[in-house]
Structure formats: C-alpha cells, structure tokens
Amino acid sequence: MNDIVPRLSFATRLRNNFLTGLVICAPVAITIWLTWTFIHWADSWVKPYIPNRYNPESYLQFAIPGFGLLIALVVITLVGFLGKNLIGRSIVNFGETILNRTPLVRTIYKSLKQIFETVLKEKGTSFNKAGLIEYPSAGLWSIVFIATDAKGEMKSKFDAMGRDMVACFLPPTPFPTAGYLVFVPREKIVLLDMSAEDAAKLIISVGLVTPTDELLSPPTPLSARLKQKLTK
C-alpha cells in the first residue's frame, strides 16, 4: 500500500510560496539597489562640475541617471590616452612634482599610486586564488586570498630567516572588504581549487553558499604550481 503524502496546510503553502518568492526577488532587488546607489553616488560627484551648456539636464525636464558616471568614464579614458604621449606625460610629471613637494599629501599620493600600480600590474595573479590557513589557532581554518610573494624589505628579512613567505589577505565574514594582511609560510597554505569568486561567496554567505562538490577536486597544498603562477 502506497504511503499517502500528507496534504500541506494553507499556511504552510503560503509560507513556502513566500520564501520561494523571496529567494527569487531579493537578489534582484538588492542588485538593482546597489547599482542604482552607485550610479547616484557617481552622478552626485560629477554632475556639479559639468558646465550647464554641456549638461542636457539643464534644458530637459527630467534627470538622466548615469550621465555623470558616463562623463567620468570618458574623462578617465581621455586622461589615460593623453598620459601616454609626450605632452600629456609632461603635464602629469609636473602635477606629480607639486604633489611630491607637499607635506602629508605626498605620503597619501605615493601610497595610493603604488597600490593602484601594483594591483593593475599584477591583476592577472593577485587575489585570483584562495587558500586555507590555520587561524586563529591550530585546528581552526580560515579562507585567505593569495596576494603575492613577499617583496622588498619584507622579502629580505624573511630570506635572512630562511623563510619562504606569501602575502595573503584574510577577510572577515560577512564583509570581506576589510581584513588583515598576513604573511604565511608557503608550506602552511592549502591551495583551494575553487575560484576566488566562489571563495568570496562562501565568506559573504557565512558558509551557506558553497561550490558544487563534484566540480572540485580535494584541496592541494600550495606548491611550485602557485609559486610559478605568482612569479609570472
């Protein structure tokens, strides 16, 4: 005799339908809200500097969302184009000279410039791999993003100690934008096969969203494969 499936109550069906709708609508709504907030933020910064004669909103009856963001992208692209030729490079060098002679400002400017140059120069290797380290104590594991090999003075100090160290970013949950820079011995890192994007999802979702198991192989220790990738 076949088992009879119990009929769900109206309240249970209503709750299930609501949760299903929430799963469908919430990501879409949050994505739209974040996108709209970013566009509005960019417009609020850029539009006040656009002359009225070039701002279509000055003679139209409605605002144009994203116009300020579009202008910002065009200006940044033009600056990059001009910065590649002799005249543009001379102007950039003159501006950098002024900034480098200004106390406090030069420290901020040099730090930001170095960060952007490093990230853009190594965008193919930095933070595109995730791994595991024992943190905050032995037996407890945390996800880190692999940044790069130790460089400069840090590398010299570690070499003097006979240590092969890797710079890693240790993000908190559920907001991975803040975190800690940690230098970890290469042999202490377990390299994950999941992408950095999947690792970020795992962190943001507090472990609720995980990559499909059958698409992954067991974690592999960080070895020459990672070292070769970081030093390309």
Automatic annotation (TrEMBL):
InterPro entries reported for this sequence: COV1-like
Entry keyword set: Membrane, Transmembrane, Transmembrane helix
Transmembrane segments: 18-39, 59-82
Pfam families documented for this protein: DUF502 (PF04367)
Keyword Transmembrane: yes
PANTHER family per the UniProt record, alphabetical: COV-LIKE PROTEIN 1, PROTEIN LIKE COV 2
Record protein name field: Putative membrane protein
